[in-house]
Amino acid sequence: MSGYRLSQLAELVQGVARGDSELMITAVGGIDDAPPGGLTFAEDARRLQDALQTPAAAILTKPTLELPPSAGKAFLLHPHPRLAWAKILALYSPFQSPAPGVHPTVAMGEGCELGDEVCLMPYVVLGSGVKIGHRVRVYPFCYIGDGCELGDDTVLYPHVTLMPRVQVGKRVIIHPGAVIGGDGYGYVTYEGVHHKIPQIGRVVIEDDVEIGCNTTIDRATTGETRIGAGTKIDNLVQVAHNVQIGEHCLLVSQVGIAGSSTLGRHVILAGQVGVKDHVHLGDHVVVGAQGGVSKSLPPNGVYWGTPAVPHREWLQVLAHLYKLPELARRVEELEKRLRER
């Protein structure tokens, strides 16, 4: 079986090997599925004790943790073991890059430009004037509309739809079923009838963004909807028209952001957070799961609840909320006493 020596892994992740540095690592796994003779991962002292009981031959962990003198295992030490673990998992991934080439079933409009080593798989459809950078991979049944641009090393997995004039940066990953550039939800009501407002803007996805399965990012009414560099978007997220998302944000599953709202840099929205239209969230704002943002939030705060309030305040609200049954019983007793007087 192919693999890497522990010393090679240490060099690749800029860590340090302890013990048998020539140990051949052919498989990796977490503590619950650590392969015999392979490498597993422990980020803290408690997990290290669990890892020592696995059949793994080597453990990736922090150099600051106390290592047993005779554990019968080798170690790969790294100050940021979770980051090193991510890099190592990529080395053992079964999902290898397909060979470059354009499949005969690809339908391509006029004036398309393809970079070097591009891979277009079966039944991909390209509109007119599409520009695709170097080493881009487009998996089967993707649609790329007129005038779209894809930067170098970007990957579109099966059934991704890019509507016309979507601009995608470098090293972007878009997972199956995502739709980028669909119409924003805009109507004007006149005499009881809803009239569609044409959505003639575009979507810009900056470099190093990842977009999850079945996520939708709407094109702008005019201007652009923009996703900042390094932002990671989970599955089933809705980003409405003209939303501006800053760099390195994290949007967890089922987040919904209404039109023309803006997010600063490093904003985190946990699962099922809803953001009202035309509000601004400052840099480094965190909103907890199922939070509802109804007004703009200043930078560097942690918020919870609906409407979202500072986390400490929300905890106080919860503490009183759970006392309501007892308070109701006491009020009933007081009312009864008053009636008996």
Can you give a write-up of this model?
The mean pLDDT is 95. Helix content is 16%, strand content 28%. The protein has a 12-stranded mixed sheet with strand order 7-10-13-16-19-24-27-30-33-36-38-39. A 10-stranded parallel sheet has the order 8-11-14-17-20-25-28-31-34-37, with no helix packed on it. The chain has a 9-stranded parallel sheet with strand order 9-12-15-18-23-26-29-32-35, with no helix packed on it. The protein contains 5 helices and 39 strands. It has 341 residues and is α/β, with parallel strands linked by helices. Strand 4, helix 2 and strand 5 form a beta-alpha-beta unit. It has 3 domains: 88 residues, MurE/MurF, N-terminal domain (Udp-n-acetylmuramoylalanyl-d-glutamate--2,6- Diaminopimelate Ligase, Chain: A, domain 1, 3-Layer(aba) Sandwich); 148 residues, UDP N-Acetylglucosamine Acyltransferase, domain 1; 30 residues.
